[in-house]
Amino acid sequence: MIEIRNVSKTFTLHNQGSAVIEVINDVSFAVAPGECVALTGASGAGKSTLMRMIYGNYLTQAGEIRIGDVDLVQAAPREVIALRREVLGYVSQFLRVVPRVPTLDVVAEPLRAVGVTAQDAQARAEVLLTQLNIPQRPWSLSPTTFSGGEQQRVNIARGFARHYPAMLLDEPTASLDAANREVVLSLIEDAKARGAAIIGIFHDEAARTRVCDREIDVSRFTPGVAA
Ligand SMILES: Nc1ncnc2c1ncn2[C@@H]1O[C@H](COP(=O)(O)OP(=O)(O)OP(=O)(O)O)[C@@H](O)[C@H]1O
User: Fold this and answer.
1) Residue 44 needs a FRET pair 20 to 30 A away by CA distance; which of 20, 58, 166, 220 works?
2) Ligand 1 atom closest to Cα of 50?
3) What are 55-64's pLDDT values in tens digits?
4) 22 CA to centre of ligand 1 in angstroms
């Protein structure tokens, strides 16, 4: 479902005499439907960079990143947008909140975007917000008014609203309490069970061991960083 072939990335620091940092050199791996692969490696190894490349936020200089039948490296911006709407979900560490949009709509939006009725999208959003212990009273308010932990859980609810065939998870259990961590791990297990191909960064080792089938140590592909 996800196939990374001979991918490399450098950053050019234009404000430092165009110094070039080689972050990833020739990484290849594939993730099958129903499989969860963890990106590991020391801080600075390039885990987040690789994740952003797979989501199409960072340009990739060399190689192929295939999600289904789309090569993200070559895709036009509108193809990337369609891929994100239909196929590729991303749970980032922080919610990007749009002021004045009610929490229920924030969570339901990925479903509305693919034509699910308002009623069904809202019902699914309510189930997820309840599961993730977001009290019902502020569902009609913007999550800007929520605590950091609540915003993180709203972000997770939004990320799991759709049953995406491929998902990227950036520290989905970071700073959650035990009960909510358990909910998130179950959501990941459910996604795998219905065939989602998942790539995740988990500093939480117990979580990684539980939900991930394999680990890719990104340091192996980082020039100058020992594995
Ligand atoms: N936009 C950027 N411009 C220049 N260098 C960058 C940029 N983004 C990341 N880097 C560099 O790429 C390297 C890898 O960073 P990255 O954040 O991917 O590491 P990481 O493995 O996710 O680390 P951590 O576990 O600490 O989050 C670092 O040396 C970082 O400074």
Assistant:
1) 166
2) 18
3) 999 989 899 9
4) 11
